[in-house]
């Protein structure tokens, strides 16, 4: 387990980047909880979601559960069959590719903007999160490592003054995030992520735009390049059509 001080620092970092945690609507809380379980693979593809059980678990009526399910459907993370059942979807590789195309386009500009400013103060949060991520990596704590990875990239958007763009992309990232979660335990992946983050920060710090682009492009393309291997190792997460196309 990662030491408690890291867990406490993680909560603090998340609060600083995301702002104060509002109570939010009941539907929002249900949505956030279910989405996190789907992304973390706690809820596997084809898992049946009982709306009654979800309501009991969260202490809410069926109305907010229905709203949460509808939002997850819009993201393609669940599918509902009228008068039947709601299932967690399998990973949609095409959706993952589209989202990653969008993210790469935007995050390249974010990193270049920071490199042009060459203000070390803007990278303090990112550097601190990277140190925490190294600790999580040493402990092989995949859950905290994943959270810190998200916060690291979010911190770059915040430093560039475009936090809203991060949230826009994150809301579309359910399928690529599940691919990353499958890829992360593979040998050498954690070290590769940490090395990429170090190189990105180093390139931004010295204002090397060409190196910033090269490092960011390589980093954000890693999971997509591993899709054939991921699908071969975890076929149960993908649909028959995608598996046949990959064969």
From TrEMBL:
Q: Which UniProt keywords apply?
A: DNA-binding, Transcription, Transcription regulation
Per its UniProt record, what SMART domains does this chain match?
FCD, HTH_GNTR
Family annotation (Pfam families): FCD, GntR
Listed GO MF terms: DNA binding; DNA-binding transcription factor activity
Q: Ligase: present as a keyword of the record?
A: no
Database matches in Gene3D superfamilies: GntR ligand-binding domain-like, Winged helix-like DNA-binding domain superfamily/Winged helix DNA-binding domain
Q: Does the keyword Repressor apply?
A: no
- Domain (HTH gntR-type) spans 24-91
This protein is called DNA-binding GntR family transcriptional regulator
List the source organism.
Roseibium marinum
